[in-house]
């Protein structure tokens, strides 16, 4: 059994595998975290790829939520005042009869719903801001390719340490292939 020292290490600070640690040895890569450990011989590794990526879907959702929030905010005031004026017209007409009472109840309910549109628009806009922030933050992704599969480790933001670790791993892989 060999007790050689690792050439490099990387602690995964965020993402699905948070708390795990990569250790690079001269002939293998070890991923240890939680209650599991995986040893990957460098001879089985086909390629290493590291990239900073942004998820365009988050930006699309942020834009969509912002537009929806704007529409709800713009519609809220006019809808509320329109329903209140219709309701006051029904009351002014001497609303004892059941059809007028139903109309008044419907107009009041729609006006109450219109009052809720502005807070809803604010919440949607806050969600859009959060999605925009996560889009801007991006993620650094390390992909380890094997003959039949691939392992992916993604961490939030630009992670220079992961890039440096991937470069060293790539150098070791290239040295083994030569």
Number of helices: 3
CATH topology of the largest domain: PH-domain like
Percent of residues in helical segments? Answer: 40-55%
- CATH C-level class of the largest domain: Mainly Beta
Number of separate structural domains = 2
**What class, by secondary structure content?**
alpha+beta
Query: What is the 3D form?
Result: rod-shaped
CATH superfamily of the largest domain: Pleckstrin-homology domain (PH domain)/Phosphotyrosine-binding domain (PTB)
Strand content: 15-25%
What is the element string, with H for helices and E for strands? EEEEEHHEEH
Strand order of the largest sheet: 1-2-3-4
The end-to-end distance, rounded to whole angstroms, is: 26 Å
- Average pLDDT score: 87
Q: How can the largest sheet be summarized? A: 4 strands, antiparallel
Low-confidence stretches: none
What is the total tally of β strands? 7
- Rg on CA atoms, Å: 29 Å
- What is the second-level CATH architecture of the largest domain? Roll
What does this structure look like?
Helices cover 53% and strands 23% of the residues. The strands form 2 sheets. It has a 4-stranded antiparallel sheet, covered by helices on one side. Strands 5-6-7 form a 3-stranded antiparallel sheet, covered by helices on one side. The two termini are 26 Å apart. It has 2 domains: 8-54 and 138-177, Pleckstrin-homology domain (PH domain)/Phosphotyrosine-binding domain (PTB) (PH-domain like), CATH 2.30.29; 56-128. With 178 residues, it is an alpha+beta fold. The protein has helices at residues 56-92, 98-137, 160-177, and strands at 8-11, 21-24, 28-33, 36-41, 47-53, 139-145, 150-156. The radius of gyration is 29 Å and the shape is rod-shaped.
């Amino acid at each position: 059994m060999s007790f050689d020292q690792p050439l490099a290490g990387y602690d995964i600070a965020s993402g699905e595998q948070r708390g795990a640690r990569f250790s690079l040895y001269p002939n293998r890569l070890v991923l240890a975290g939680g209650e599991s450990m995986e040893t990957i011989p460098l001879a089985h590794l086909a390629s290493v790829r590291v990239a900073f990526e942004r998820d365009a879907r988050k930006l699309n959702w942020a834009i969509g939520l912002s537009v929806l929030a704007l529409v709800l905010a713009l519609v809220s005031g006019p809808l509320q005042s329109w329903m209140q004026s219709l309701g006051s017209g029904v009351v002014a007409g001497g609303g004892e009869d059941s059809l007028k009472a139903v109309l008044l109840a419907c107009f009041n309910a729609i006006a109450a719903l219109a009052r809720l549109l502005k807070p809803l628009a604010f919440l949607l806009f806050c969600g859009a801001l959060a999605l925009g922030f996560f889009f801007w933050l991006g993620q650094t992704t390390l992909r380890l390719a094997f003959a039949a599969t691939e392992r992916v480790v993604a961490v939030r933001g630009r992670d220079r340490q992961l890039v440096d670790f991937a470069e060293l791993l790539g150098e070791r892989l290239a040295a083994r292939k030569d």
